[in-house]
Structure formats: C-alpha cells, structure tokens
Specification:
100 residues; alpha+beta; Arc Repressor Mutant, subunit A; three-stranded antiparallel beta sheet; globular
Length: 100
Amino acid sequence: MTIHPNPVSHSASPEPGTRLSLAETVAAVLCAMGADGLAQDPILTREQVAKMLGISVSTLLRMARREEGPKITRLSPRRLGYRLADVNAWAEAQRAGQDD
C-alpha cells in the first residue's frame, strides 16, 4: 500500500465510475487541499492521515498516546505532522501483521 508522491496528473476529473488507486486518491485529496506541487515526502496533518487511514482523528490521537500509530514528526514546539513515508511504512507493517 505504498503511496507514490506523483502518480498522476490531476488536470481533469476522472470519468464517473472510474476506480482510482489509493495513491491516486491521496494525491487528488492533497491537491484539492492546496498541496499542488507534492513534495517527495510531504508532511501531513492529523486530519489528512486520519482520512487516509479511514479512522477518526480521536482514534489517531489515542494511538499516538499509546505509541501505536504512525511515527509523528515534530515541526515546532507546538506543531506536529506525519511524513507520508512514515504513514506508508506503518500501514505496510499493519497489513503484513494481518497477513500472518
């Protein structure tokens, strides 16, 4: 479930009924949220990560308190974020654990 930073161009909306990959969906959401030129490893907000993982922000916070979720990156004394690579690594580890 690795998400690549620049999977597709988002100049046009997909045809109705077209299924996008997770990478394409995340890239489209980030683009819609104002992250036009996606960096190689963008920093995501709690809200973006929660939406990407399909969980609530409160669940993500609870996981962080228990040190169970994706690795947190401290951006400043009062600002936290999540590197896309760290979220991908955590999601892959979770998926690998379920496959066993």
